[in-house]
Amino acid sequence: MVKHVILWTLKDELSPEEKAQVKKGIKEGLEGLKCRVPGIVDIKVNINGLASSNADLMLDSLFENKEALDAYAVHPAHVAVADEKVRPYTKIRSCLDFEI
């Protein structure tokens, strides 16, 4: 199994209301991929960080293996969510992938 964790920081120019909408859209988009992309075991997006956090949201996902993660990265459904709901609104992305 492979764990795929991403932390994002949203762009500064977004208002608090816009950030809330963006986070909701990212959560719905990414979590909606579970039944659409083969190899995803679990996928969750946390959008309710505490004030002590220095990131705005986190993707916590689990894949069957590295090949499934690689296929997810280029899957058209994932690319569409990333291009439409994530990349236009984020300024920082940190990723950690590891086998468990």
Automatic annotation (TrEMBL):
Classification of source organism: Bacteria, Bacillati, Bacillota, Clostridia, Eubacteriales
Per its UniProt entry, which superkingdom is the organism in?
A: Bacteria
Q: Which PANTHER family match?
A: BLL2683 PROTEIN, STRESS-RESPONSE A_B BARREL DOMAIN-CONTAINING PROTEIN
Q: Which residues form the Stress-response A/B barrel domain?
A: 2-98
Q: How is this protein named in the record?
A: Stress responsive A/B Barrel Domain
| Organism per entry | Eubacterium ruminantium
InterPro entries per the UniProt record, alphabetical: Dabb, Dimeric_a/b-barrel
Name one matching Pfam family. Dabb
